[in-house]
Amino acid sequence: MEGPGGAQPLRLVVGLGGASARENGSGETKVLMVNEDVEPLVQLAQRGDMAAFSQLFRKHSSLVTALVYRMLGRSPDIEDVVQEVFIQVHRSLGEFRGQAKFSTWLHRVAVNVVLMHRRRAKSRPVFAAEDAAGEAPDSSLGPEQNVARQRRVDAFYRLLDKLSDKKREVFVLHELEGMSAIQIASATHSPVLTVRTRLFYARKELADLMRDEPVLLALVAEGETR
């Protein structure tokens, strides 16, 4: 299913490509792609080895931070939420049985923590440049281009925040994190058809919202001509 303009223009809007997602030679997208040979560390951490847990944190913290940022936008709470994710990981590590990759399980924990945070807050904090971490400037762009890019990012996240939690979740995981519908279904314990339906309506709703956003309107028109 594709919404108006498809997925591509929505990726172009923010200039973000899912920094933690890459595709292997078969085209399969991997979740939180790091060295997946972490089973020995996981087993040691499950037995209470804090040094092993610290290594797991170092291997995955930047990728979890990227996921939290993409789900919350430019929020001053990002660092606190990341810490909360790893507190929950530490508490729940004994429940991990290796039926899925550790990175897939970690994704699920992170998504659940972010959604709980959003429900507690009821609404995201207002964007504030002085206390919110924005996207790093693109060194290939000039100052004016980076300013324009950041305006698109801010506008995009304002629109993204208007989606329901469930639509926002699947959109972020698919479009920005590079997860397939099957992987999202596994991570969120949802039927694949439900994931695809939510993604379709998330794309459609965002495309409609973007038509009323001057900063993004030109990109919608560009996407519809592709």
Describe how the helices and strands are arranged.
Layout (H helix, E strand, L loop, with lengths): L7 H7 L7 E2 L5 E2 L8 H8 L3 H23 L5 H15 L9 H20 L21 H18 L4 H12 L4 H8 L3 H19 L3 H11 L2
Antiparallel strand pairs: 1-2
Please explain how this structure is put together.
There is one protein chain. Strands 1-2 form a two-stranded antiparallel ribbon. By secondary structure, the protein is mainly alpha-helical. Helices cover 62% and strands 2% of the residues. The model is unreliable at 1-35 and 124-134 (pLDDT under 50). The protein has a single domain (8-124, 142-219), classed as Orthogonal Bundle (Rna Polymerase Sigma Factor, Chain: A), CATH 1.10.1740. It has helices at residues 8-14, 39-46, 50-72, 78-92, 102-121, 143-160, 165-176, 181-188, 192-210, 214-224, and strands at 22-23, 29-30.
Provide a short characterization of the protein structure.
With 226 residues, the protein is an all-alpha fold.
Q: Tell me what the CATH architecture is.
A: Orthogonal Bundle
CATH topology type: Rna Polymerase Sigma Factor, Chain: A
**Secondary structural class:** mainly alpha
- With helices defined by DSSP (H or I, 4 residues minimum), what is the helix count? 10
Radius of gyration from the alpha-carbon trace, in angstroms: 18 Å
